[in-house]
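Input record, target 12 of the design panel.
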């Protein structure tokens, strides 16, 4: 029986125990959630670029990116067969809201509701991107409005159960409040959120190099340095640099914008570089460019200085010639494709584990807060699942490893992180092999790894923490071997 199946059975058991109470309906919702797409919250400080990144991931301008009233409300974006926006007021029944598309962007009419009176908005939108993940756009941490900022703290650090299975946390640099928030979202226990379901995003990465063409290279160096920072490693799995505005624009690029960029690209690189030294110069100088100040301002709002520089350089050098080619190139250079790859490896491959953890957290919280006849049996089942499920042992070791509680040589700890799935759950990621490696090579590598971790676990000189981690690594190796074709190998 899989982990998801065992979790579902525990929920069925609990629904029976709490039948006739308000908790039964909630538990049914939690059980249904196991079959839903992964819930990924996007959080960060004010003006970090959360809504812009969400739009880039969806491929449409759905989330408002200005300082409008809707940005103060937690908003869910999920796939569906119809287009609908539903408001959940703090008082009263949910109500449908009117919405429109203004120049491609979604405009929502709250219908007289004040933002502080709305618990959340649910946007249902047919989207291929939303079939694998429901995205949650949250108000900014550190908002001038305490009530607005508190919404995000509540939805992601609730002591009961967090609505999100995983979180993307946007940062422009490492601020003390970023660490404080992520530590609140993090807990060493497997049934609580921990670094395995948090990814850091170095947002607005193109601004790090003041919009220069090498800005993303500088951002990647900073992201790598942050990823190695002990404070960051304790709370997120990785840090990925993304130029969110460029990624959003790449996903929604228009032929009109490409035509305007071509006019700029016709001029020499020296002329354009001088023009793009400042926003004011770009908007007001070189009337011979053939673009109005309104058109130039619109380009800056969509691309930023970095994006205009990059797009015109690509067109001038002949790297791209069509709008489709330019969109593809901009998306790739924005870092959003790297983020998608990380999401796939660290989130979506662990979908069942993350969802099971969220469900078990809900069960654990309920049996503690509302005990009744039979709830002790449910609590025992939850404890048994957590104690016996190897993926949870891996998460505990990964959390301890990231927190610095497991000591050892850097190369050993790096191998440990890989074998327990810290760089991805796929076999080739765990064994640090090419993606197209054959079963025989996988078997040989897994057997070598098993022998190595067994030797380390049994070595009396190995620290207690590392010996415990080594035994978990052994079980991971045995799991790899057990899944291989019988003739290709088995645990020995």
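The sequence produced for target 12 reads:
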């Amino acid at each position: 029986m899989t982990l998801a199946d065992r979790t579902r059975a525990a929920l069925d058991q609990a629904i029976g125990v709490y039948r006739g109470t308000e908790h039964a309906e909630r538990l049914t919702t939690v059980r249904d959630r196991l079959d839903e797409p992964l819930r990924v919250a996007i959080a960060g400080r004010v003006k970090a670029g959360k809504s812009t990144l969400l739009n880039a991931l969806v491929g449409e301008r759905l989330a408002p990116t200005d300082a409008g009233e809707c940005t103060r409300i937690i908003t869910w974006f999920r796939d569906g067969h119809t287009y609908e926006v539903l408001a959940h007021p703090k008082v009263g029944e949910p109500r449908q809201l009117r919405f429109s598309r203004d120049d491609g962007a979604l405009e929502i009419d709250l219908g007289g509701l004040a933002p502080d009176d709305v618990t959340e908005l649910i946007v249902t939108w047919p989207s291929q991107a939303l079939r694998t993940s429901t995205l949650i756009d949250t108000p900014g941490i550190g908002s001038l409005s305490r009530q607005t900022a508190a919404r995000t703290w509540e939805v992601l650090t609730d002591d009961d159960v967090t609505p999100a299975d995983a979180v993307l946390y946007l940062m422009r640099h490492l601020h003390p409040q970023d660490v404080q928030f992520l530590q609140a979202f993090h807990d060493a226990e497997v049934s609580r959120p921990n670094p395995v379901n948090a990814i850091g995003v170095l947002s607005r990465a193109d601004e790090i190099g003041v919009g220069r063409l090498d800005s993303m290279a500088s951002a990647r160096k900073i992201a790598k340095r942050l990823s190695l920072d002990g404070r960051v490693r304790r709370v997120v799995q990785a840090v990925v640099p993304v130029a969110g505005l460029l990624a959003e624009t790449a996903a929604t690029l228009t032929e009109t914008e490409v035509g305007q960029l071509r006019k700029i690209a016709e001029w020499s690189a020296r002329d354009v570089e001088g023009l793009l030294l400042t926003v004011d110069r770009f908007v007001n100088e070189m009337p011979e460019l053939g673009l109005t100040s309104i058109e130039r301002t619109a380009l800056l709002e969509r691309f930023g200085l970095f994006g205009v520089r990059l797009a015109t350089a690509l067109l001038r050098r002949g790297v791209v010639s069509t709008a489709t080619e330019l969109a593809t190139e901009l998306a790739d250079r924005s870092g959003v494709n790297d983020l998608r790859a990380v999401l796939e490896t660290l989130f979506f491959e662990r979908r069942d584990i993350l969802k099971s953890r969220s469900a078990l957290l809900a069960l654990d919280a309920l049996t503690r807060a509302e005990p009744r006849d039979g709830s002790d049996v449910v609590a025992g089942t939850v404890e048994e699942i957590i104690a016996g499920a190897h993926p949870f042992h891996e998460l505990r070791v990964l959390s301890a490893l990231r927190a610095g509680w497991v000591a050892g040589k850097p190369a050993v700890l790096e191998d440990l992180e890989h074998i327990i799935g810290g760089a991805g759950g796929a076999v080739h990621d765990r064994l640090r092999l090419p993606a197209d490696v054959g079963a025989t090579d996988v078997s040989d590598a897994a057997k070598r790894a098993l022998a190595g971790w067994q030797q380390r676990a049994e070595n009396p000189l190995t620290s207690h923490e590392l010996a415990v981690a080594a035994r978990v690594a052994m079980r991971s190796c045995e799991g790899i071997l057990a899944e291989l074709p019988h003739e290709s190998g088995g645990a020995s």
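The radius of gyration is 25 Å.
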